[in-house]
Amino acid sequence: MSTLGLMAAVLRRDLALAYRRWGDVASPVMFFAIVSSLFPLALSPRREVLQQLGPGVLWIAALLSMLLSLNALFRQDVEDGSMEQLAIGPQSLPAIMLAKAAAHWLVAGLPLILLAPLLAVTYHLPGPGVTALCVTLLLGTPTLSLLGSVGAALTAGVRQSGGLLALLVLPLCLPVLIFGARGTALAAGGEVISGPLYLLGAFAVLATSLVPFASAVAIRISLD
Description:
- The protein is mainly α.
- 83% of the residues lie in helices and 0% in strands.
C-alpha cells in the first residue's frame, strides 16, 4: 500500500470510530459552546467590553475544547495492540501520525470553526472580526491537533493522563493562542492582520513538516 493510501485508510478508520461514539464527538463542541456562551453572562453586558474580551475568550475556549478530546487519540489503539503492529510494521509511522492528527482535527477542530460565527455574535464582533476569527481558527486549529498529538502519544500508556497531557501541550500551544486571538482583535478594530495570519500559516507548515516525526518517536517511547 502506498503512503497516501495508508494515510487515507487510517483517516477513514479513525473517522468511522469517532462517529460511532457520538458522546466523544459532541463533548468538545458542547464545551466550546457552553464556555463561550457563559462568559457574556458573567462579564459586563457593555458592548465595548465584550468586543474587547471576545477574541481571547473564544480562542481559549477553542483551545481547551480541543485538549478535551486529545486524551483518547491513541488510547484505544494502544490498548487493542493495533498501534504496536503499526509501529513495528513497514509502514511510515510519521504518515500514520499525520493521518491521525488530521482525523482529530476533522472531528474536534472543524466543528468549532463552523460554530464560531454563531458564538461571535454574543460578543458583538463586527463582520471583519468574525471573518478573522474563522480564518485564524482555520489556520491555528490544525497546528493544535498536531502539537496535541505529541503529548497524546507520550501519555498514551498512562492512565488518567488528562492533567499531564495538558501540562505537556499547553506551553506548545501558547503562540498559536496568542497570535490567533491577536489577529481576531486587530480585525475587530479595523486594523491589518496580515502579520498574525502569516505567523499562523508558518506554524501550520512547520508543524505539518516536523511534528509527525516527533509523534512517531513519542508513540514508540510509550510502547516501550
